[in-house]
Amino acid sequence: MSSQSSHQILLDQLALLRLSAFRQALESQFASPHYEELSFEERLSLLVEHEVLQRQHNRIQRRVTQARFSQRAMVQDIDFSAGRGLHRQQILQLAQTTWIRKHLNLIILGPTGAGKTFLSCALGYAACEQDLITRYFRLPRLFQDFNMAHLEGSYPHLIKSLRKTDLLILDDWLRDKPSLVEAQFLLDILDDRYGHASIMLVSQFPVSTWHVRLPDPTLADAILDRLVHNAHRIELVGDSQRKLRAEATLSST
């Protein structure tokens, strides 16, 4: 049997084993004479490393797709300009995700356009890189899903799917005042997660106003008790990032 035939048989077997990255790297080795200078162990180590790295990359991308972030954002792209209220050390520590593994919460506050959503998605992406199951919702959209689940009889399935997440990000938190039924739904989610999983809340409203934005004082007490006391906080300040980017674009034309 020729070496070319044996090579193809080996490549076909790797395809059957679904070792696609290993197979791709081996094809590169076959095509380049430089690898002949390496020992068998060195060549095998390179092949295995390529397969491991590709699987890690694929797993992260599955986590990111599952999260459904509204923006593509990474911690390294965060603007730490003076006057934004961001502390680099705090953000880098949060990006290590220790707070998620300890089942703590995070509250991101700031005016419209301050970059809250970008920051939340960047920290969510960091969680995906740590192989943590993450989901991103704008709260009004989550309420739409809740109402639809009630109509279709799939409410238990929705609760179960949310229960499986390590980090649940709720953007536009209390932008619109929830109904009594929606507030009870929030409490159901929080009861499931308290002490077991983390929530990130993103809001333009100060925490001191949250109680009055909920429809019932007793429910408000229960909801906030499960959210606020074990939460890190970030408060963004300064001009709208959208406004600044628009001004920079206009000045360059």
Can you walk me through this structure?
The protein is an alpha/beta fold and 253 residues long. The chain contains 12 helices and 5 strands. A 5-stranded parallel sheet has the order 2-3-4-1-5. Strand 3, helix 9 and strand 4 form a beta-alpha-beta unit.
* Backbone CA Rg: 24 Å
What shape does the CA trace take?
Answer: elongated
Q: Which regions contain 5 or more consecutive residues with pLDDT less than 50?
A: 246-250
Briefly note the structural class of the backbone: alpha/beta
Count every beta strand, where a strand is a DSSP E run of 2 or more residues.
5
Any idea how many domains?
Answer: 2
Distance between the termini: 66 Å
Q: SSE string, helix = H, strand = E?
A: HHHHHEHEHHEHEHHEH
Our estimate of the beta-strand percent is 5-15%
